[in-house]
Write a structure and sequence with these properties.
By secondary structure, the protein is mainly α. It is 67% helix and 1% strand. The protein has helices spanning 2-11, 13-32, 34-46, 56-73, 78-82, 97-106, 122-145, 162-172, 176-198, 202-208, 214-223, 228-238, 255-258, 260-273, 279-297, 300-313, 320-333, 337-347, 358-372, 375-378, 389-397, and strands at 148-149, 160-161.
């Protein structure tokens, strides 16, 4: 049988070979562009508009407005519902609420308010849960048509950012770990919007179809400098601060501590787009991420990067104290007490008269002097401080 098949193949080889070559090259082309094809098929099958052709009016009329009506009709207080979620399943994100309120007010953005007051009852949560799930379903569909809805299209006369409404609704029924994905989608939406608005070249367009290469990423971020919506959305995604504890590793109950690589990726972006006068806090938080990554991976390069970011944070009034203290701590961790002492010598000339972290500072001085073998001087900063004139004089020098 195989001989007959082979004989026929050879007989019609001039027809068969081009056919095979066509399928090989077609397969290569389809594989290389598989994500674009899948995206196209998804858009065609779902009926959702392509990017750049959003339909905010449909998003509001068919999905967002009905979701608002469901909450009003059932008198649902999303902020109250959120309080019934067990702490262990909440997405602990460190975020400055004042910063959020300032942003919402500045851009006249709509959000679900705490209108209806009820006694705290778990029965209330169970009773309203299905209504909130319906709201989430509607908002997710609406997000496919538009991420933002201009104020002039809404009855509330406020701009609507659907990720904010989705976050509030998901938090209410204990789906906080799912809500952050909407912010990742919104970040990508802003980046794509800039790409279309600025009309990058064909070469850059090709680059954009793939995960961001560093060269294109920098061009894009230069355009996004001081873009408050972009900065706000990144903070909503990963948080606006990184916790630092001198005795413990970054606590895992904080979202940013369980996603250090992701946080590092976005803090690199923030370093490009953040207003120059406020970069100190970004450098400080980024240094902490590098510090934790160094401990986690045992990679010394991360510690070098942390020191570089701490050096940047030392130049800013709102971050220099923490930067100096944490830099001293890092040198001690790296068993480099000589360098720690050099930082102490620099810091003691510029430290505030009333140092809030005085206990931490004295503890770092104690450890530094101990590692260097200056035990007599170190005892003046230990837990059992020697109350003598000599010790008082030494402490005054520091």
């Amino acid at each position: 049988m195989f001989k007959i098949i082979l004989k026929n193949l050879l007989k019609y080889k001039y027809y068969f070979i081009p056919f095979v070559l066509f399928w090989i090259f077609s397969g290569i082309f389809v594989y290389q562009n598989r994500y674009q094809f899948l995206s196209f098929l998804y858009r065609v099958s779902s009926g959702f508009p392509e990017f750049g052709k959003e339909n905010p009016k449909k998003a509001y009329t068919d999905f967002v407005q009905p979701s608002i009506q469901i909450l009003e009709k059932n008198q649902i207080n999303l902020l109250l519902l959120k309080e019934f979620c067990p702490k262990q399943i909440k997405r602990e994100i460190l975020f400055n609420n004042e910063y959020e309120w300032h942003f919402l007010k500045k851009y006249n953005i709509f959000y679900f308010e705490s209108k209806y007051i009820f006694s705290k009852s778990y029965e209330y949560w169970k009773d309203k849960k299905d209504n909130v799930l319906e709201v989430i379903h509607l908002l997710k569909k609406g997000q496919e048509y538009a991420m933002e809805i201009p104020a002039e299209l809404t009855n509330e006369k406020k701009t609507i950012l659907i990720p904010i409404l989705l976050e509030q609704a998901m938090d209410a029924i204990c789906l906080s770990y799912e809500s952050y994905k909407n912010w990742a989608q919104y970040i990508k939406y802003i980046e794509q919007s800039v790409y279309l608005e600025k009309n990058f070249s064909v070469k850059e367009k090709e680059l954009y179809l793939h995960p961001y290469p560093s060269e294109f990423d920098i061009d894009l971020l230069n355009v996004l400098q001081n873009n408050e919506k972009y900065i706000f959305s990144i903070h909503k995604y990963i948080g606006s601060s990184v916790p630092f504890e001198y005795l413990h590793f970054c606590p895992n109950d904080k979202f940013i501590c369980s996603q250090l690589e992701e946080a590092n990726f976005f803090y690199n972006k923030l370093a490009f787009v953040y207003p120059f006068e406020n970069l100190g806090v970004i450098f400080l938080n980024h240094a902490r991420i590098y510090f934790y990554l160094g401990i986690q991976t045992k990679n010394q390069e991360y510690f070098s990067l942390a020191l570089d970011r701490y050096t940047g944070a030392k130049d800013y009034l709102n971050s220099y104290v923490d930067a100096y203290l944490e830099m001293i701590f890092l040198f001690l961790k790296l068993n480099q007490p000589e360098k720690a002492l050099l930082e102490i010598e620099k810091f003691k000339t510029i430290k505030p008269k009333k140092l809030i972290q005085e206990k931490i500072y004295f503890d770092l001085v104690y450890k530094t002097l101990t590692q260097l073998g200056y035990f007599k001087e170190a005892d003046c900063f230990g837990n059992n401080v020697i109350d003598s004139n000599e010790c008082k004089k030494i402490r005054e020098e520091f």
